[in-house]
Design brief:
This protein has 17 helices and nine strands. It is an alpha/beta fold. Helix 7 packs antiparallel against helix 8 and helix 11 packs across helix 12.
Amino acid sequence: MRTFNKNTEQLTIEKYLPHNFLAEKVILSSLLISSEAIDLTLKTLTLETFYFRNHQEIYKAIITMYKQKIPIDIITLNTFLQDNGLLEKIGGINVLIELINQIPNLVYLEDYIRLIQDKFLRRSLIKLGYKTINSGYITNLPLETILSEFEFEAFNLTNKIKSETLSNSAELFSSVFSELKKKSLNPMFSGLSSGFYHLDSFTQGFQKSDLIIIAGRPSMGKTALSLNITLNIIKKYQLPVLFFSLEMSKEQLIYRLLANETNISQMHLRTGKLSKEEWLKLITKIKDLSTLPLFLDDTPNLSLQDIRSKIKTIIFEHNKIGLIVIDYLQLMQNSSFSTNNRVQELSYITRSLKSIAREFKVPLIVLSQLSRNVESRINKRPILSDLRESGSIEQDADLVLMLYRDSYYNSTEDTSFNLAELIIAKQRNGPTGTVELEFNAKNIEFLNIQQNSED
């Protein structure tokens, strides 16, 4: 059985961890002669990025001086270190003199930064490996805990590797210009197409990092619309979609999907009374749908941490995710929220959901109920203020869609097909308006019809 000498092993790890001594010195030297270098470096590097302890102390002192708006050069840095009893800790005045003797080329500063970032990430990977090995020998620690912790830290490390560097205006404008040229040659939506052409013409598709609210009174078809969008996106892009259902079970959602895809009524599916042709159609569709990267989760009392954890699991397994759907907002809770004010709690949840959308750079659709105020009005078409316990929902959302079916309040002769309005009540970077859809009550699905711009 393997035994560990913790001290010996730690010394071995430290001795051979990747580092770049010269690149660290050049970066610190740059900070003493250029304010632009300070702005770039402080926004990019952390203390741990530097391998040598004295370099960490120097960098920490520069950060403190920068925050206190103290001019930074060799004289002020030396004075600051002396006054705080840190000069001897970094190796004395000779270390600072060595920095000044370096003649950095600021043109290559970003390259030097990438060099020490690469070494830092490699050190992090090595330490994670040793930590995982040691954890494997602790038999009283549940395996699930070890794997969960490894998954979490590996995901964070992957994010650091993929993190983008800061871009200057010239790079950004050049990138946008190239994108515009590409679009002019091959017109396309900038986001994920919902499968509803007229909606996409308003929104240019669902954009990365956007929080999208689909709101409506009960039985308007919010879940049906979100399922239609989910299937359309999966089929078109073959991207994983994670659907959180707090109201319906996974089995109920599957019945809905099958009804949509097979054109067989839910009643027939639930009773199993199908014709031979319907059985053949059902078997074919089940085979097709089984290959789609759709992930359903019906965990009750879903927390924000649960959502983050499950998103990370999908990304860890598939290296990408296309869309997240939550059905619906008012069933979410935050156990760590101390106040009894439900409006404040929901405001916190929507802000957190917006953060999740930005963190994972993915469109996040959240279904939301509307208040009963709608029922008391003669004109029952919803407006933004009808968002139930709205708090900051309309403020945090990038896109607010409101679903309305007049036939719900006014019965028609043929109730199998009727018109639905998808009201684009708010769009942060685009027009508002109305999209008319056709609602198929038999299969609980929506079809394209037309649009009407109000902006």
